[in-house]
Each structure stands twice: as C-alpha cells, then as structure tokens.
Design a protein that fits this description.
Strand content: 15-25%
Distance between the termini: 11 Å
Number of strands: 11
Helix content: 25-40%
Length: 329
Amino acid sequence: MSVIDVHTHYVPHGWPELPGVGPRPSLRVDSPRTATIMLGEQPFRTITDTAWNADVRLRDMDRHGVDRQVLSPTPVFFSYDQPADAAAATAAIFNDLALDIAAQAPGRLVPFCQVPLQDTDAACRELERAVGAGHRGVEIGNHVGDRDLDYAGVVTFLQHAAALDVPVFVHPWDMPSSPRVGRWMAQWLVGMPAETHLSLVAMTLGGVFDRIGPELRICFAHGGGSFPFWVGRMDNAWRERPDVVGGSALPPSGYLDRFLVDSVVFDERALRLLVDTMGAERVLLGTDYPYPLGEPEPGAVIRKAGFLTDDQRSLLLGRNAVRFLGEKA
C-alpha cells in the first residue's frame, strides 16, 4: 500500500530579491539547519532544514512510513497583493526552486506550483509553464483579497486547470486580524478553519460546481475546515432562504462528491465525522509537514482509527491520492 501525504510545504534555502512593492519575503539564514522567513525587516516564521533539505525530509518520511509527499508553496509567497507582473515573476522563481528540491528525490517528492491568481491570463500562463517544466499540480489560496473562489477570473482559472488535467490544492491564507483573534493563535485555530469553510461556501452556494464539470480534481486543506460539520445548516438555508442563498442548482450536500479534503483534523472523532460526511473515497492523508501545527506522526490518526475498515484505511492513506494526482491505481 502506497502512503501519500498530499499536504506538505517547502521553503527554498534562499532566493533572489523578489520584485514588487512593500515588504517582500526574504530568508535570513541563522545556522546550517535553521532560518527565518522575513517580511521586510520583520520575522515571519522560523523554519528548519526540513523545509528545503530533501535528505532530511526523506528520513522523516521513512521513519513514519510515508512513500511520497506533495510539495506545495508556503502561502506567504503567493503575492496576490502585488502587481500581476511581480507576482508572476515571484511564482516563476519559487516554482523553479521547488523543482530543484523535488529533483533530489524523483518519484518521492511531487511538486505543486503557485500562480499569480489575481491575473487570470498570467495565472494560466504560469500554470502551463510550470506543468511543462515538471510540476504535477497547483496550490492556490482560498481567496484573492475580497474575491472568493466564485469570482469569474478564478473560475476561469479552475476551468483551465481542469482542461489541462491538473489537480488543484486549496489552502487557507491571509486570515483577518483583529484584537479578538490576536490571542491564542486564534487566526490559525479559528480563522483558518473558517477561511476553508468560506471558500467551500463560495464553491457550492456560489454555483462554481455548476459551471465546472467533474473533471476538476480539487482538494481542500485542513479537512475542509468547519464546512463538513455545518452541511446541514447550509442545506437548511438553501431550502428556507432561496432569496439569499439560492444561487446554486443543488444544496451544498449535493456537491460533496465534487471535491476532496485532507485528513488534518488530529482527532479520531473529527475524522469519523469527516468520513461519514464526505465518504471514505473523498478524504486524503495530509499533515501540514514540516510546520509545528501539523500532524506530528503522519497518518497516525488514520492508522489508529478503529471505525475504519482496512479497505477504507488504504483509501485514505494513499489510494485516494493516486486518483487525485491523476495516476493509475
């Protein structure tokens, strides 16, 4: 049984100065094994060589029984707030550096690119270039400023990805800040699940799945956020308030077979709800490696879940990911 982690991130060990305006990400190397992502003069996140060193990643993968990892960008590099040409140049820089990391372990590290999603034409061009160079999929943020995934330009990009047979991984990012979410890491603990939930509301109630066929392979991070828990509430709103939320042909539950989610929910009870709601064939192993809020032991919740059959366990650990990546089982 192949075990595939569809939700991991990379950070290159340095990059050229990025074009654009305002504070741009750079890397401060602190030691041979540690570095700090900087935003202008301000530290953003401390990382270790797990982010860039393929040998270290492979040792961790072997220790935890993971055969392959999907390498996706760290969202701070998306640059959706930048002019389109600067964001396109930034995407190209990181996409090429991602291929360098993946080339250290061909067959085990699967690169996903980023695109300048604020400009549909530029995003489609970079997707084509990156896939032609070796990328296997694309990671996008769940919104571009105030534009959600039902925005016409984003829908056009998703249609293009579907036409190219390229899988899409949606990651929450750019959570709103306020004094109320400034404590307890609430931006990540509350805001991140809410952002993923909102992006799925946009896809379902916004009618995106009515405009894009089932050929779109799209997966949402962090177990779909709070969306799976509240499908019944949204269905009720679709039925009772069509004047407000009736923009889709079906209620949200009618689209559960149109997308996938990862398994980063950390608790067997949450995983049971996820599998009961989505179906075992719609949940993929994800960990958020190498970041501290990821699953510490990849696949442990799935492996230990007493409610799963052996066949369901193999679906979650790898077989669903094979289908998501467009490979033959």
